[in-house]
Design brief:
The protein has 388 residues and is α+β, with helices and mostly antiparallel strands. It has three domains: 197 residues, no CATH class; 48 residues; 72 residues. It contains 16 helices and seven strands. Strands 2-3-1-4-5-7-6 form a seven-stranded antiparallel sheet, sandwiched between helices.
Length: 388
């Protein structure tokens, strides 16, 4: 297997300037560089740039994969949309970590395999397009990706068995397309996710009512409202990001104002409890799959037996013609007709067993072998097929 490394960076909130692109071009002469993207594939050598430094200065997303088993994803978000205190509960190991970078928080997730993995051409680009929406989901307050990162730490043995899980994000039992891709990219055990989701409440994806939003905005301090309008008018940041920030603050404020509903979630589970439950679920799933396969196999065998019986019924009515057909096929002295003749002899053998005339079949087969003793190709096929 030849070496394969895929690098892709994306600038989402702010496009690259000409100076930015020139600085990046100095790092690599082969990469595709546009105002929103740097992408390169290496079959030998490596990228000279430092992904951590480039994420701090230029980019909002980075994806790397190599055919020796490494998958790596980094996402950069403004600190006003994601704080380190929140991420600290979830990003607990080298496989899922968070760090401050100026006004941003950078999330990093990494999966490794001991053995290599086959990588198709273009696979890296397909991963990135499916994973980039995660950034907007996290920015809106969706913590499922962070919880999955914690599960990765638990699964890879980087957490103490007695460590309790962080708050379980709502909607874990029904992942979005980008979240499912994220779980696949990090190779997180689906049974572990399913067990964790048992304590996850349904995700309420209801857009805010206009009157509620209007009331909340009306109650904001004048200086705060003026600041939001000024940021919108001054530009310099994507309108969509500002909208995300406002809606996130609205949801947090309205959620804090509501009385907590009774919850049957119970105490937080430990790493050991989750891993044990996932193993039990996997065992049960494998048993169910084995039972289902056994039932399906038995069904196919019954259908095949019925079809075989019907075929032998038909063959019984033309048995003499079948023997003549065997003679004709042998006379062609070719491989394919020999194979067809042997199959027909197997059918005649089974018919003789059914009719309890096996001795007569054996005598006629012995006569046939003697008659064609010089046709070694045919005789060897009879022996291999177990007709004798």
């Amino acid at each position: 297997m030849s070496e394969y490394q895929y690098y892709e960076f994306q600038a989402i909130d702010r496009p690259l300037t000409k100076d930015d692109m020139a600085e990046l071009r100095a790092l690599t002469t082969r990469a595709i560089i546009t105002p929103t993207r740097l992408q390169n594939v290496y079959h030998w050598g490596s990228f000279r740039g430092d992904p951590n430094a480039l994420m701090e200065r230029y980019f909002d997303a980075f994806l790397y994969l190599a055919n020796w088993g490494t998958h790596r994803l980094m996402l950069r978000l403004p600190r006003r949309l994601l704080d380190l205190e929140t991420t600290a509960a979830y990003c607990r190991c080298d496989r899922a970590l968070a760090r401050a970078a100026g006004d941003h928080v950078i999330l990093e997730f990494r999966s490794e395999l001991d053995e290599g993995a086959w990588v198709e051409d273009g696979e890296g680009e397909a991963w990135m397009s499916s994973l980039v929406p995660l950034r907007a989901e996290i920015a809106s307050g969706d913590m499922r990706a962070l919880y999955l990162g914690w599960l990765l730490c638990a699964e890879t043995g980087e957490l103490d068995d007695n460590e309790a899980e962080p708050p379980v994000a709502p909607g874990l039992g029904r992942l979005s397309g980008s979240l499912q891709t994220f779980a696949d990219f990090l190779r997180i055990d689906p049974d572990l996710i399913a067990v964790a989701a048992q304590r996850s409440e349904d995700l309420q994806e209801v857009p805010p009512l206009r009157r509620e939003l209007e009331r909340w905005i009306g109650d904001l301090p004048e200086a705060e409202k003026n600041g939001l309008v000024l940021r919108l008018a001054a530009g310099g940041e994507p309108v969509s990001l500002l909208q995300t920030e406002i809606l996130r603050r609205f949801r947090q404020a309205t959620a804090a104002a509501r009385p907590l509903a009774p919850s049957g979630a119970g105490a937080r589970r430990t790493v050991a409890e989750l891993m044990s439950a996932a193993e039990e679920r996997a065992d049960a799933r494998r048993r169910e799959e084995a039972e289902r396969e056994a039932r399906e196999r038995a069904r196919r065998e019954r259908e095949e037996a019925v079809a075989r019986a019907a075929y032998l019924d038909d063959l019984a009515g033309r048995e003499q013609a079948a023997w003549l057909q065997v003679e004709a096929l042998i006379g062609k002295r070719q491989a394919a007709p020999y194979d067809e003749a042997v199959q027909l002899l197997k059918d005649l053998r089974d018919l003789s067993a059914r009719k309890q005339t096996a001795p007569a079949f054996a005598a006629r087969l012995s006569q046939l072998r003697a008659q064609h003793a010089k046709k070694s190709g045919f005789l060897s096929r009879i022996e291999r097929a177990g007709v004798i």
